[in-house]
Design goal:
753 residues, Topoisomerase II, domain 5, Gyrase A, domain 2, Topoisomerase, domain 3, four-stranded antiparallel β-sheet, elongated
Length: 753
Amino acid sequence: MPKKKTPETGKPKSGNPNVLGLHAAVVEQPITDTLETNYMPYAMSVIVSRAIPEIDGFKPSHRKLLYTMYKMGLLTGARTKSANIVGQTMRLNPHGDAAIYDTMVRLSRGYGALLTPFVDSKGNFGKHYSRDMSCAAPRYTEAKLTPICQELFRDIDSDTVDFVDNYDNTMKEPALLPTTFPNILVSANMGIAVGMASQFCGFNLKEVCDTAAAYLKNPDCDLLETLPAPDFPTGGELICDRDALRDIYATGRGGVKVRAKWRYVKEENLIEITEIPYSTSTEAILDKVAELIKAGKAKEIADMRDETDLSGLKLTIDLKRGADPDKLMARLFKQTPLEDAFSCNFNVLIGGMPQVLGVRRILEEWTAWRTESVRRRVFFVLGKRREKLHLLKGLKRILLDIDKAIKIIRETEEESEVIPNLMIGFGIDQVQAEYVAEIKLRNINKEYILKRVKETEALQDEIDDLEDILQDPRRVKKIILEELRDAAKKYGEPRRTAIIYAHELPDPGEDEGPEETAVHVFLSKEGYFKKITPQSLRMSNTQKYKEGDGLRQSFETTSRAEVMFFTDKCQVYKTRLSEFEDSKASVLGDYLPAKLGMDAGESVVFMVLPGDYSGGLLFFFENGKAARVEIKAYQTSSNRRKLTGAYSDKSPLKAILRVDGDLELAAYSTEPRCLIFHTALLAPKTTRSTQGVAVMTLKPKYQLESVLPVEETAIANKSRYRVRAVPAAGALLRQEDTEEVQLGLLDDGELLT
């Protein structure tokens, strides 16, 4: 009977000290060590090996794809399926097929993202100017290299660039591509790394080549003469600012403005937009115009549609009768992406180090790198010519006695001794002997040998010329100049983006917008806002409020006036009354926290119509302090809708008052005491978050309760409470001075106007 196996009790212990069992170990280490061992290698990998282009104008993903296509014979051969190219590229690029195919799409002619595309595509590759027009799957499209890629791979097999191992050390790939023109300036490129980014705008190929040639001749040349402005594949009109362009050329940072190109078709009363800025899309333009139409800010537009087809991009705007197309487009340029800015950040890898360089510095680095590539090519060719000359010199000695060579070979018993015997017999080295021994029997006649020997003279002249090139930098520069001229002549195209100047733009006149009319505005305690016309108010002046709500402020103003709403979170929201629809007294109105997109739990406490931003605001706090801030402190040059730090947050806010001049105010505390002072005692400040100065001295457990203009109080003996300097404690309130005050204070702590 077999013996029963007893179950093992306990878990086997591993003898390997590195095996921890089922429970993971918790390793404590300083955060600096974690960043150094984990984060920094990843960050440097993204910067150096992924996101930032190098001096040849390519990222590693671009370079691997193009080199794979070159090795597949797609420079001169027929197109092949994109899926085949993607699969072959995986041998160099260890990424998914989707990432590789996206790279190919961006480099293709069909996608239209580059002025000089490198992939000759066939099929649906999508469009750069549309986020919804996506490319077809790689099994449905075909591709090959465009003819300009000859300039990328010229003499790549002549040791012009270094070759490195691929990710698994099974193949070699070029570290850079030996481009004969400054592709770094020609191809638009964008990359987001860790802690930095790169954004190159494209320039016209012919203009870049002319600029590089001018720089080679004179490093101090004026770049604007040959490189007037960037050029974009989507065309449009670039608003040229020479000072801004000089800054971009000098620092590598800045921005340019590009607007759409349009025409008015009078017969059909419509506008056709045929070119748009490079940095936007047709869908973004349509969405923004739709918002303007919905908000009533583009009443001249009857309809807008996308009529893009195989002939190219076209957005059509149908106009209503009597609409002025020039004024409409001027307003659309201001309010939509039809005019957009392209930000430049010329961050490039130089020797593995990211550097933000201007155009002149980029040309300097490119010419230095290209000079070295040409010298390496010349040295490689020189070595080949020297080897051939060396072989021909050995062949020349055979000419003296061919029969002797034949005799040596015939009389040699072992094959391994043929080369040594030829070396001894003619006084030649092993390389020459190997070459002689490999000559075919049909080529041992004198005619053949004499022809080869005659080559030695021409070969020697070529060697002398190559050696002279290596020793003369001017001749190297001449070679680079000839290659630049050839590239510009073969592949140069006219500019696509027109250049206009700001003073040449038509004056659209004042943007009239909606007609300015008189209105009444109402703000409730709960934050409901209404804008009512006088006609509507005459029909019904009974205001509707929620239960427990009531009027906080009301003003008479115009429909296009600016308004500021102060909140209990020390913030102010700026907008215009034209943003609000006309309302009626019988409705609640717009709920401001939702309308203005306020933070959670934030509510409006005060409304101000700044007008020309004259006068000031008085902020009174619970601790008895008051701050006088000029209204112009809230004036901004940009269209900022939200300002933080509207007032000090050191103590709770009790009241806000607007003062256009000086007046007397009465401050009440919870003791109760009263203090009458003149606002001239409060010096105005331009800093919004100032804590102010002490106005009322408070005993412990007491606080400031309210502030009112003196004329709105029931104080009979004002001299009892009046002071000439602050801070002061004030006087205890008498019964005859408090009756109407209590009636005037609707809520404890209400902010007063």
